[in-house]
Structures are given as C-alpha cells and as structure tokens.
Amino acid sequence: MRVLGLDVGTKTIGVALSDELGWTAQGLTTLRREEGEEDKDFQAIANLVEEHGVDTIVIGLPKNMNGSIGPSGERSQLFADTLSNHVSCTIKMWDERLTTVAAEKMLISADVSRKKRKQVIDKMAAVMILQGYLDHKG
C-alpha cells in the first residue's frame, strides 16, 4: 500500500506519493485552495487516496523551533481531524520544521527560476515530509 504526504498551507496543498514498497517519495501535485471551499480539498484528497490505493496519509505538522505548536500547527491538526471524516485510512502528523526552507534551498541550488520554484515548492515540501516519514519508518 502507498503513503500520501501532504504539506497543507492556506493557499495550496502540496501532495507527494510513495512508491508501492514505501521506500521513496515523489511529488504528485499541488492542490489550489479556495477560502470557504474546504470540502473540495477533502474530496480531492479522498479521490487521490482511492485512485492510488493509499492506506496512510502523513500531514506535515509545523512546529515552532522550541517544539511548541502555534497557530499553523493547530490549523494542520484541525485539517487532519476533519480529513479523517472523509477518508478511511490512517492519518499521521509529521514534524515538518524547516522542510519548506530546505526545499527552497534545494531548488535554488538546482538553479530553478523563482517563478518555477513558486509553482513546485509546496510539492517539494510534501516530498520532504513524506520521505522523512518513510526513512524513519523503514
């Protein structure tokens, strides 16, 4: 079974998918979010779960550097709780401190243009969240 990784932001959701053996994470897509249209987000994720045979979803939990959970982390936890009403698979939270910063640095070092970075940064962060989980699990 596969694992889906999510980097949940206010405007986008970066999505990554594991291979069938659960060893590697690949970027899948970036979902655009609209305020007041949260049900569309949950339905899109439920469709991806069904389409790819996902049994676990890993959602990035943005913690403060001291390990506490601030407003962004609380939003991610609420998102996970609500998502659990739309999918029947296991949902896990994963510490995502600095994943977006690391993804940005990796894209800069690969000489990706600023415009292109903006289009793929959330998907790359989801890959890093998922790969961290897979490496830890495995």
UniProtKB/TrEMBL annotation:
Domain YqgF/RNase H-like positions: 1-103
Q: Per UniProt, which keywords does this protein have?
A: Cytoplasm, Hydrolase, Nuclease, Ribosome biogenesis
Alphabetized Gene3D superfamilies for the sequence: YqgF/RNase H-like domain
Q: Which Pfam families match?
A: RuvX
* This enzyme's EC code(s): 3.1.-.-
Q: Chief subcellular site?
A: cytoplasm
Question: Does the record bear Hydrolase in its keywords?
Answer: yes
| Matching CDD domains | YqgF (cd16964)
Q: One MF term in GO for this entry?
A: hydrolase activity, acting on ester bonds
InterPro entries xref list: RNaseH-like_sf, YqgF, YqgF/RNaseH-like_dom, YqgF/RNaseH-like_dom_sf
Gene Ontology annotations for the cellular component aspect, listed alphabetically: cytosol
* GO process annotations (BP): rRNA 5'-end processing
Q: Where is this chain's protein located in or outside the cell? A: Cytoplasm
Query: What function does the entry list?
Result: Could be a nuclease involved in processing of the 5'-end of pre-16S rRNA.
- NCBIfam families referenced in this protein's UniProt entry, alphabetically: RNAse_H_YqgF (TIGR00250)
Family statement drawn from the similarity comment of this UniProt entry: Belongs to the YqgF HJR family.
Q: HAMAP family, alphabetically? A: Nuclease_YqgF (MF_00651)
Q: What protein does this entry describe?
A: Putative pre-16S rRNA nuclease
Q: Which organism is it from?
A: Halalkalibacter okhensis
